[in-house]
Amino acid sequence: CNDEDKFTVANKKLKYPVGLITIDEAVYAGGEYSDKSSGYYLNTGHYYWTMSPFYFSGSSADVWSVYTSGDFYYNFVYYSRGVRPVVNLVSKTLVSGKGTSDEPYVVVEN
Hints:
The protein is mainly beta and 110 residues long. It has a 4-stranded mixed β-sheet. A two-stranded antiparallel sheet has the order 1-6. A two-stranded antiparallel sheet has the order 7-8. The mean pLDDT is 78. It has one helix spanning 23-28; strands at 19-20, 48-57, 60-66, 72-76, 82-83, 85-86, 93-96, 106-109. It has 1 helix and 8 strands; from the N terminus they run βαβββββββ. Helix content is 5%, strand content 33%.
């Protein structure tokens, strides 16, 4: 990012930074590089990219992704897939609610 980028903290255009999930965060949440990943909360039934690289050569790049089954694989980055945003919260953040449309999460810095 640089000062000309519209989405940076440095130029004050982005007050609360949002990133993409990494494969490390998906593993920490309970996912695996196998067929045993169906029960963790990041398994949404949708295919999405992570920001973690897998391989790069001069003509192609692969990144880790999470498949609809919740398993991890790597693919070329030219496929049209979703992304999973991540917001990191400070430890004194309080969260209430159930995350549903009737009782959405409410996040407050304590």
